[in-house]
Amino acid sequence: MEIRIEKGQPEKYPCELLLLFSFEPPTPLEGAMERVDQEWKGFLSTLINQGDFKGELYQCRLIHTQGALSSKRALLVGLGKKEEFDLEKWRGAASKAGQFIRDSEIKQFACQINPIKDFAVEELTESFVTGLLLGTYQFNKLKTLEREKIKRIERVILLGENEEKIAQIEQGLKHGQIISDAVCMARDLANAPSNQVTPSVLADKAREIAKDQRLGVEVFDLNEAEAMGMGAFVAVAKGSQEPAKFIVLEYNQGKGMDTIALVGKGITFDSGGISIKPAEKMEQMKADMSGAAAVLGIMQAASKLQLPLHLVGIIPATENLPSGKAYKPGDVLKTLSGQTVEVISTDAEGRLILSDALTYSLRYKPKAIIDLATLTGAVVIALGDYVIGLFGNDDSLQKKIELASQKSGEKVWKLPLWDEYFDYIKSDVADFKNVGTRAAGAIIGAIFLSKFVEKTPWVHLDIAGPAFIEKERPYMPKGATGIGVRLLVQLLRDWK
Asked: 281 catalytic, yes or no?
């Protein structure tokens, strides 16, 4: 989709479709809607007064202008009650508008973005572009039949009345595209089958990002990881014939900036290992590397946005499969930290590979460590499919995440990490067990990880619920969502 900016007035701009937004009555018409209504001799006001368009949130009404305007059609989209408006509803409205236009097989449309409430044109443009691009995302590159029936919007024109407005729109467009591209890349990686996105492919993607954005990159193979002492990562990886990769991306190294480590779980397929999963929905375990995909997306976006931070992205990437070389329940593993872990379930492999990755991140002496992982089914039981489980050892860092959540619309909910929970993973033969009882499963996974960050401020984001969804939401089609990218990019943009 090409998005460009042109100088023009919506009521006079010739196009296939003019996109207009309106609140529910009694809020009067504003901005482009008001100007078009005046040009159309009160037609839109009459439509609203007669109840043919109510302005309800996400309501869409297509109108043929019959030559009354320079545009052939107008699409009216509702924003709901003005007092309830926020950027999340705006992103959703942009998404619903884009889906309606695409499904109507209209290839081109124009829109003018006006200030709304206390929101400036730049941030409204960024959120509009984000909602539009993420809402019209499709993963169809593997389909070969009837490709001519795939519907797409080809061109969007954002209208600016003067040079000042155009400059604001340009900034918002640039940022919206950078962030949306990163989310879509993460979605593509997690949607793709595991025979096409292997640990080696993740490593290649990291190298590609590093080359494009001039980042530092290192990729360690299994022998190198074993020589370094990554006993937990190596144990999980040995069950698969697909070569494991331990990936490190670095942005702004050696520039004296605050260092933040981002760690992403990179299990490119999770069968559960010897503790094998049920067959039902096992195919969705191709998305067990959603944390890794998010880290790649964040690193790409942060470098394109030129954020003044030293970022280290760390991805332990492997499959988790049963074989004659696979690790077993009852095995004791020595981690990179020197601590030992008794394996109770080989299906709790994510925390094992993350334990070595978290320990490795300490080499960079970060101001903060943030990990993203589809770690537990238990967090879905606790919070459902819409919310990220938030855990951590530092209140200030958690509050920053919560603020970024409010701005980005990616919801988080804080869960406790009290010392009493550690009793669940005490082992008779090692320092810890890798699982406890069924009780407090998401918390126990986080408690386990907390033992590998020492005293560094750290947050664990359990994204198992929203990482891969079966029911679409306004700008999240079914499948992989790229969750975590926008949340943490917002955190990094606001970092102080």
From this structure: no
C-beta separation of 238 from 196 below 8 A: no
Side by side, the strands of the sheet bearing 340-342 are 332-334, 340-342, 432-433
Domain enclosing residue 130, as ranges: 2-180
Q: The pTM is what?
A: 0.97
d(CA 179, CA 212): 16
**Among 319, 370, 379, CA closest to 491:** 370
pLDDT of residue 160: 96
Task: Round to whole Å and give the CA distance between 478 and 99.
Answer: 14
- 70 within some domain: yes
Element (H, E) at 408: helix 395-408
pLDDT digits (tens, 9 = 90+) for 313-345: 999 999 999 999 999 999 999 999 999 999 999
- Catalytic residue selected from 54, 151, 174, 277: 277
pLDDT score, position 437: 85
Residue with tokens 């309830």: 84
What does DSSP say about strands 332-334 and 340-342: parallel, antiparallel, or unpaired?
Answer: antiparallel
Residues 275 and 137 in one domain: no
Find the catalytic residue in 351, 400, 433, 451: 351
| Active-site residue flag, 433 | no
